[in-house]
Amino acid sequence: MLEIEYREWLEARGAQALSARNTRVYAIKTIEKNLAALGSPYNDLNEAYKADGFAQLRERIKQIRNNAKNGGYEYRILMPESKNPLNRLVSWNSWLGQYGRFLSGDISQTDRIWDYVRHHYIAPARERGEKSVVMATDALNSEMNMSMSWTDICETLANSEFQELANVPAPLMDEAAKKITFILMEGEETVSQEPSNPTNLILYGPPGTGKTYNTAREAVALCDGTADYPLTPEGREELMDRYNELMAEKRISFVTFHQSYDYETFVEGLRPETDGDETLSTGFRLVPVPGIFREICALADQARTRKRPLQHTSEFDLKGRHFWKMAQGTIGSEDDVYEDAQANGYIALGWGGAIDWSAEKFSSFDAIKDEWLKQNPGNQTPSNWTQTYPFRSEMKVGDIVIVPYGNTAFRAIAEVTGDYYFVPSAEGYYAHRRRVRWLLTLNDPLPLDTIVEGKFTMRTLYSLPARRVNIAGLSRLINVNEEPEYKSIEPVKPEQFVLIIDEINRANISKVFGELITLLEPDKRLGMTNALTVTLPYSKKKDFGIPANLHIIGTMNTADRSIALLDTALRRRFNFREMAPEADLLGVVENINLRAVLTTINRRIEYLVDREHRIGHAFFMHCKTKFQIEEVMRNKVIPLLQEYFFDDWSRISTVLGDGFIQNESITPPPGIDGEKMLSWSVRPTFKENAFKQLEGHAQPISDQDSLMANGKE
């Protein structure tokens, strides 16, 4: 085949991802290599195309797919170890037709429309797990710079050849709305997902009103459907235990905004990364690294679109398993290695050359090293024995293999099901293999810290200590992906995810969310009617959206900034729930009426400043003794009042009285003609009646409001 020219042609026509080009090249190469087995009399694809435009070959691949649907094994001509060849055969037949259009040197308007609709509408919708995709013909004309009529577009897309290429049934036409709907759910079925109702909520109020605790309760309720824990110390402990479990599973994430927080930290940014592997090549490059928001979006979308098993599926037991990190080909340049391994149920090692290590005499490390150096005296790269030995001898059936995507993400998880074997026909190119069962394969990689603590190193294969593996997070991912019998049953709500943003008002919201601010709206989420997607600026990831099963809860301290000053775009997209001080939750401790004390302090603050600067009840909730109350006053309340009143101690005295603070007169230094001044300080020991002074002024609301009104008049 004309590989170089075909790659350039694909890239010029929109196949920007290297992996997409590699996949198609691998398919065409495999077809060409097996022309004789496919019944073709020609030596290469160029001859086959000149003869009949690939008509015989494409018909043969169609027959092979029909044979596979009926339980036959003819597909093994092209995919000898594939367990799910139907969709791959459709894609390969389509790519063969595309290669024919490349060879012809021309592409018709019909072909352009077919390619555009498949690559920009149908394929992305399939990747998102959607059951259908709607295309407006006006939008298509605009995007492709055409002016075709409704009738002509319908005729083009209703063509049976297009339906075969795209693997879709005849589309549904809505002439009044000028829209065409393609139904995508053909082949393997999944349990229908009940749409989520995304929550965008901000809890706001003064300091100490329990905002952080209530975000935990709200997050657990969103994830579990309920958070019915009693309002007791024991109930709080149970709630926080469940909250921490969900955090460990990565279904809840927590981040605190601050003044310098930005898009590059929150969504994605460029970070330097060193190149190389065991050969220790030098230099670095800037690579896009996802932030916490993109990471939790990926987790939520994976949960939203993945298959769901029947309820009787047994749980996958990870107890006593051994874990490995093992790369499958270099990302970008060897994607065919990973794709073929995934399709055919094996993992492959690229080190070890063309030597068959399966003989019993190679069961030891030294034996492998000696044989390698004997047969390859000019190649003393250690990986050829340090990587081969554990793969051949230490890895066992039942072990779990995690396939990385760079150093901070992963793209698949497999269970080893067979011993080492050698493939002579591979001629040393990833010829060392083991059979596996793929427990999880991902279109979009997930962050590594979902299942493994720390980063991966560049070595191809090594053992992972069990202490580094997040068993809870790993179990959640693989227990629903063991590929049992799938079928459509009652709608199942996908797992829910929550991102908690503490101090959401402290950052520049437009700077942090950027173009994603619109995607926060509930009806613009993935899976909703008006779903929107964008292309991310650094990774160039297309069709990025915010899943409907991701909820966002923010907290906002109104003492820092009034809700009225919050970013307008954010205010329109969030619901707000006030968390006000609740003095009624406080009782009497050692004859100190905390309810009355807090009520008095807050009324005076509201009169002098505003209600957003009141003191929260949470400061006093755990006080059991007078000493603890005094510590809260000294270390929490008085410092807050200093901040509120900009160290104007006379106003602090107005709020607290003279039982907590004191002053003394300071005379002018010699030689300075001036008035005496007051020097303020916190009393080393509070007055005996300090709290009684505050308790005595805790009047009913109506009386106090009346006093304030009279005072202001």
Automatic annotation (TrEMBL):
<dbReference type="GO" id="GO:0005524">
    <property type="term" value="F:ATP binding"/>
</dbReference>
<feature type="domain" description="AAA+ ATPase">
    <location>
        <begin position="197"/>
        <end position="584"/>
    </location>
</feature>
<dbReference type="InterPro" id="IPR052934">
    <property type="entry name" value="Methyl-DNA_Rec/Restrict_Enz"/>
</dbReference>
<protein>
    <submittedName>
        <fullName>AAA family ATPase</fullName>
    </submittedName>
</protein>
<dbReference type="InterPro" id="IPR015947">
    <property type="entry name" value="PUA-like_sf"/>
</dbReference>
<dbReference type="Pfam" id="PF07728">
    <property type="entry name" value="AAA_5"/>
</dbReference>
<dbReference type="GO" id="GO:0016887">
    <property type="term" value="F:ATP hydrolysis activity"/>
</dbReference>
<dbReference type="InterPro" id="IPR003593">
    <property type="entry name" value="AAA+_ATPase"/>
</dbReference>
<dbReference type="InterPro" id="IPR027417">
    <property type="entry name" value="P-loop_NTPase"/>
</dbReference>
<dbReference type="InterPro" id="IPR011704">
    <property type="entry name" value="ATPase_dyneun-rel_AAA"/>
</dbReference>
